[in-house]
UniProtKB/TrEMBL annotation:
Family assignment from sequence similarity: Belongs to the FPP/GGPP synthase family.
A Pfam family assignment: polyprenyl_synt
Alphabetically ordered keywords of this record: Isoprene biosynthesis, Magnesium, Metal-binding, Transferase
Annotated NCBIfam families: FPPsyn
Protein name: Polyprenyl synthetase family protein
Keyword Oxidoreductase carried by entry: no
CDD domains: Trans_IPPS_HT
Amino acid sequence: MDAHDARFEDRLTVVAGEIERLLDSLLAGEPQAGEIARPPRLVEAMRYTVLGGGKRLRPFLAVEAARLLGRAGPGALRAGAAIELLHCYSLVHDDLPSMDDDDLRRGKPTLHRAFDEATAILAGDALLTLAFDVLADAPTDEDATVRAELVLGLARAAGLGGMVGGQMLDLAAEGRYAAGPLGLGDIRRLQAMKTGALIAFSVEAGAIVGRANEGQRTALRAYGRALGAAFQVADDILDREASAETLGKRAGKDAEKGKATLVDALGLKAARAERDRLAGEAVAALAPFGAAADALRAAARFAAERQS
């Protein structure tokens, strides 16, 4: 590991710790203003799935993009925490028997196995709505226009034309619904929606909080899109090559379910080359920022080279 990567790992750990503490406070049992009560079992389930797991890469991207623009502080952390809450909701629902039917997530039983299916559905619903609660709340930013832009951006990335729509396309690609074979362009679009949109918005959220100008926004958008695509190709490769112990979840499920991936479309060797090309594209997009963007460059390399 070189010095740049060591600094990145240290910074990732620091941000993860800050996000963990914020998530812990956001998932407290005491009701907030406007709430009537927080059912203990629901709070317990939400805390089970959110706390103590994951690399917090999405919040890291939001925090570092804002920091790059001179806007480090609680607003970027809250935006990152909101994205992580929504990401965790998506994992809970993806793991359900009606979806991917997984028993293991982040090295422990999935939420519907640890609790029950109804609790898992409700916990996912609560995490989703809490994400927008956090973004819309005044402590996230003093400017209501900024908060509204964050809410709109996350809704677009996570909803019908983003993550949820991508999941629908993914289920169709498994053969559950009428759908023909997917071409390379179809697979790229599916992955850009299901995985890439939320990663790209994580960077965009930092740009929004950081008051990026149009040139900065354009560069950061290009970075986020390429990074999201590289992350998904790396995920496809890991599903084929890594063990369940390394991944902390079931391995080999893509091939088992007949999912459409770039590994299938291109083969492993070409998929690795595509992953590296996309990571390089993400790094190149940050050229206007010079050395100040080294943490984000390292994040692109990390997304491509990670082993879990």
